[in-house]
Specification:
seven-stranded mixed beta sheet; TRAPPC10/Trs130_N; golgi apparatus; alpha+beta; flat; TRAPPC10/Trs130_C; 1108 residues; TRAPPC10/Trs130; transport
Amino acid sequence: MANYLAQFQTIKSTCDRIVIAEALTVGKSMHSPDLTALQPDLDEFKTILKPRLKLIVQNDEREWFIVFVSKAHPSNDQATKMAKKVYARLEADFNTKKRERCCKFDLHGSDKEFWDDFDSKMVDCIRNTLDRRVQFYEEEIRRLSEQRFTPIWNFCNFFILKESLAFMFELSNLHEDSLREYDELELCYSESVNSPGKHREFGGLDTGDDQAVLLNPGAKALTQIVQDDVFREFEFRQYIFACQAKLLFKLSRSIEVAARGYAFVVGFSKTLALHENALPFCFREVWVITACLGLIKSTSSHYDDGSVAIDSEKEFYRLQGDLYSLCRVKFMRLAYLIGYGVEIEKSPVNSASLSMLPWPKPATWPSIPPDSSAEIMEKEKMILQVKSREKLFSIHRKPLPLEPSLLLREANRRRAFLSVGNLSELYDSSDGSGLDANSKLPPHRSASNSMTRTMSGPATSETSLPVDRPMRLSEIHVAAEHALKQTISDPDFMTSLSSLEEFEKRYMELTKEGWEELLADVLPDLAECQKILNDEAGYLASCVKLLSLDSGLFSSKERQAFQSEVVQLAHSEMKHLVPLDVSSLITFAGNAGPPLELCDGDPGTLSVAVWSGFPDDITLESLSLRLSASSSADEGIKAIKSSDSHVLVPGRNIISFDIPPQKPGSYVLGALTGQIGKLSFRSHGFSQDGPVETDEFISFEKPTRPVLKVRKPRALVDITPAVSSALLMNELQWIGLIVKSIDYSLKGGILHIDAGAELKIEESQMIEIEIYGSDMECANSANGSIEAGKVEKIPIENGKIKLPDWASDVTTLVWFPVRAIDDTITRGESPVSPQKQSVVDGMRMIALKLEFGVFHNQVFERTIAVHFTNPFHVSTRVVDKCNDGGLLLQVILRSEVKATLHVKDVRLDLQSGFEHLGKGDGRPALSLFPLVIAPSSKAGILFMIRLSGTKDADEAENADSMLNITYGISGDRTTGAHSPIPIKPGDSEELLFKIALKLKRPVLNPCLAVGFLPFSTACLRVGQLVNMRWRVERLKTPEDASISVNEILYQVEANPQNWMVAGRKCGHVSLSNEQGSRMEITVTCMPLVSGYVHPPQLGLPEVGRGKH
């Protein structure tokens, strides 16, 4: 395993780029490790070069392509042609449909296209190699992952595969993928190292291990930290983090390095605490300090503050502050151990940090080294010279503790080779240090009651202490300092603990406390000077700064005086009005709870909590709020003004702002501006989110929680037709619209209905609104005031409908009456006059616009198509011809609507040239009325007619017969066509439908006959010419003997998608007027498609017009 790790680490340390393994070159003078050819012609290529090339590229594991180098000069035609032939043969042999393997380089030609082609093929090779290797590694990793809980599991094998894959991703600049592999490797290692089993070494005992290496993955070789089938935890966790940080820096994510680093230091510090008794003295504290300082330095050098948003910048500096704070606390702990605790400020922050931080827990507390008596005396002098430090401005406060427990007691308790000793000696030491007011013995306990203990072990030469006496505090400091010198390997770090001066220098780099007390002492004098010098702007700023200091530094009357000065100056006539920054006095934050959510285009009201640091009420003449888009560093939008003046009371205030429509996105609070009197002010102070009842003036930092979310544009309402089937043409019908709100109130909405051409809305009728059937149960459960089956009638004016309030949150069905107008005459269908129906014939368009929202700012527009149709489709045919010359005419009625039709009467008014038989009243031969026709059903009606004489044949041909159908309809408006809406009371329910029928007189005595002759071949083929032949024969001599013209006009009609006519499509042919004369018409055609197709048709357009 060590050999594999060594090989892997060697490859990783030496390879920092992708290595291209092989390329093949073919040319007139070929040179490669395996191939040489001089002046190859086509035969030499086929017999010599091609077999050798095939042998080289037959390995599928290799990626390859061939570069053909041509030295042929353009003036040498023979060489140029030969080079082209060889390259063409090369392409034919080695290129495939999926991939081109060859490219050509002409030494005497342009090389731009070649290098583009060369780069493309090289990239393809690299990509394919990478894909193949990634697939291989992923399969191996998957196989090993399945064995993780088996006895044969070996983490080192898994690590080599996993990091090899990450390394390949890193070389390919796929840093995100590489980072993902390291994250997964870290999780897998955590499971392996925490699994129960044999004891594993933790590490951390080598020289220099006290210095954290979170940013140096090459600090130790992997072979040095391997142990059996896993790595030592101390080194390996730092190695993994260093690899992750390296990738994050390449991705320009310094903030994430800081965030991950802080979490890692805190978590790893807890791990070090578990192994503290096996590590050097204070090893944990030293490691944390060096880790924090290393992270601060590295992330600061990589951080680019010019390319990040304000939120990210604030987050970065917050993390830097957290690292500094953690480093500072650990540094103060070390200083306290070696006797510098007297120089540490006993502030609330320091007390809270150090008193909660436990003492080091070594297996044995360090002993005093020999020849250290002089150092002990120096420590005792330092302790005896300590005086209680007086606060500024003669403020005396009770000293706050900096210890979790008494150091004297803790150190002696951990001296494993000594007994606890006499308790009185722990407290009755001559220096009296190490005690505080709360740790002294009670007065009723005397020394005689204390139990005397002596140690049972022998004395050693390592210490001059008698074995029965505990260590004194000065001796503890000296022993700790000498132990730290053995732990700390960095001389510069040890220098910062070598003296009080060096400690204070480093301490001041990590802390900034006590400045408010200094300002409270200096600022009043500065403000007085500014007032004498009539520096109004400076004096105003000083008063605001005094109000911003800790309220405990000044009395209430003094703070009220400061506010009085600010208000007086704000309302006075200042010579130079300057904007006032009150970020430390007036802070603001969004209210607790979820942010205000608005739809795109909607206004709203945003409530903001504003904290006032003024001691008394203060009036703001105006107040404005700016919002910042959370995805941009720019504050971005126009200030939102509050309409009224406001009086801020000390503490928390709630102020509402009317928000105009904003762009979609999340918004955080930006800045608060306004006016106090004539003075404008601005605040960037962001209060931390706290409980709603909190009235404290809270410190400020930029919030990350949005206060306003504007949703992206989405559908807020949907309007669809309630019925998709056809309605009756020319009749007053109900049209239903399903109006569905999508999580949005339609209260106060106005629906505009604009009827299109040939469509009329009957505004004299009331529209009807009801709850949609599928939404009935939901509406009843959500709103008890809505009655089941409620239908409300409301008027429509100028195409506008105002929706009722109860319909704002439920799906409703809106019914309004319309009439589709069609003035054309409806015609029936017959074999002689077929009708071509179009889908759009009965379509009518209705434009809808719904205005809704609080200010009708939301608009929904849609155009819907409504289908109207006639109640019947009528067709005719002659079913029989009687011996007496009568004709049996069948009229077929087919229902076109989804409703039941009741035919009550039918009357046929015949055109000239035809007459009824029998009664002659135009009624059918058999009376079957009333006739009921179901939806999509047919019914047939028979009429007995015969031919009659006519004076004008053309007039008879152009005339129409009219069919009058009296009918009724039984339908439901929810499914389609229904009974028309009565306009007046008492309107008849009977309807009349008229349709024109074209009847053509039959040809009883034909003059000509046309026949299609069979093909000369049995099989027709696409693209093959074929002759189409028709025979025309005269059956009788024309009745009009004066006609001498014997020419007949013919015309060939063919579908151009199926046939191509190669001959003449029309022309004249000669046909004698004698009975029995005949002739043939031949036209050459070509079939264009295969299958069953209609052949071309021959027509005689003029036959019938003349007396042929």
